[in-house]
């Protein structure tokens, strides 16, 4: 027992020394930071495209700047002009800590390679993926970790056209654990309004309308069910946005 107590005191002391050393930092992060050197402050897009993000670089970012960078990265993806990165070097750089700039919640769909879609590499963004990009307690906890603990500035929920999970929710599919998953999409089905045709999964316009509504509801759910994230957004520390990926073009557009 005595050994454990001495170890705990030593550990707390080391932690406090580390905290004092980073007194200028406003980041709540200790869990995400495991001793990686801060590196030089360089918040420019060019400065962070090829190397891994440092704490200093992360702290210089604003939610608006991060959003701008992700959308610019998507334009490069659409233009087939992705940044060439040395992944081996990035793996080595990032092994001891991470300072990602955003949390992206995307559908499970294999046609949406999230890091590529935003032209991001190792250590740049947290990505949570689940069919129908639905929000639950675990996703909320992950987002709170990403933003409050690890310092990310933006949460983006990304739905997409022709979402199979949304179609299955429209069709009332019932199968194993898929049933409770689809139940989380049903509110969007019930709120989606038929456009140019019937309210069925055979009507692409209707499906895409429900997909967008599903993203809007996910964003609203994040604000409603996470006091931590809602407060961070109200204080201007983060931004929470909904977006939509077009499977035919690769383009991401924001959902008002
Ligand atoms: Zn989908």
Task: Provide the fold topology.
Blueprint: H1 2-21, H2 45-49, H3 55-60, H4 63-78, H5 87-94, E1 102-106, H6 114-117, E2 125-129, H7 137-149, E3 154-160, H8 164-170, H9 178-183, H10 186-191, H11 204-225, H12 227-234, E4 239-245, E5 252-255
Parallel strand pairs: 1-2, 1-3, 3-4
Antiparallel strand pairs: 4-5
Bound molecules: zinc ion.
Residues 107, 109, 132, 160, 163-165 line the site of zinc ion.
Which fold name corresponds to the CATH topology of the largest domain?
A: Beta-carbonic Anhydrase, Chain A
| Regions with little confidence, pLDDT below 50 for 5+ residues | 1-43
Helicity, as a percent range: 40-55%
Q: Count every helix, treating DSSP H or I runs of 4 or more residues as helices.
A: 12
| Full CATH superfamily name of the largest domain | Carbonic anhydrase
Strand content: 5-15%
N-to-C SSE series?
Answer: HHHHHEHEHEHHHHHEE
Let me know the largest β-sheet. 5 strands, mixed
Q: How many structural units, i.e. domains? A: 2
Q: Say how many strands there are.
A: 5
Tell me, briefly, the overall form: globular
Q: Please compute the radius of gyration using only Cα atoms.
A: 20 Å
Structural class: alpha/beta
- For the terminal residues, how far apart are their CA atoms? 57 Å
- Return the average pLDDT rounded to an integer: 83
What's the CATH class of the largest domain, please? Alpha Beta
CATH architecture of the largest domain: 3-Layer(aba) Sandwich
Bound molecules: zinc ion
Strand order of the largest sheet: 2-1-3-4-5
């Amino acid at each position: 027992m005595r050994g454990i107590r001495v170890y705990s005191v030593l550990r707390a002391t080391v932690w406090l020394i580390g905290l004092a050393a980073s007194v200028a930092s406003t980041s709540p992060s200790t869990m995400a930071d495991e001793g990686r050197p801060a590196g030089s402050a360089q918040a420019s897009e060019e400065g962070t495209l090829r190397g891994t993000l440092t704490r200093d670089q992360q702290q210089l970012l604003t939610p608006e700047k991060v959003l701008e960078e992700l959308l610019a990265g998507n334009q490069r993806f659409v233009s087939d002009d992705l940044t060439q990165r040395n992944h081996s070097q990035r793996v080595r750089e990032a092994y001891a800590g991470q300072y990602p700039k955003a949390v992206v919640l995307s559908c499970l769909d294999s046609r949406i390679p999230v890091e590529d879609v935003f032209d991001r590499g190792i250590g740049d963004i947290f990505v949570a993926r689940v069919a129908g990009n639905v929000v639950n307690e675990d996703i909320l906890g992950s987002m709170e970790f990403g933003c409050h603990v690890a310092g990310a500035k933006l949460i983006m929920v990304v739905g997409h056209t022709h979402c199979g999970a949304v179609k299955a929710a429209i069709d009332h599919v019932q199968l194993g654990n898929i049933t409770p998953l689809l139940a989380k999409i049903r509110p969007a089905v019930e709120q989606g309004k038929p456009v140019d045709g019937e309210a069925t999964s055979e009507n692409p316009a209707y499906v895409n309308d429900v997909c967008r509504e599903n993203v809007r509801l996910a964003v609203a759910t994040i604000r409603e069910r996470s006091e931590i994230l809602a407060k961070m957004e109200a204080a201007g520390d983060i931004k929470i946005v909904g977006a939509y990926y077009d499977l035919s073009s690769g383009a991401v557009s924001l959902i008002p």
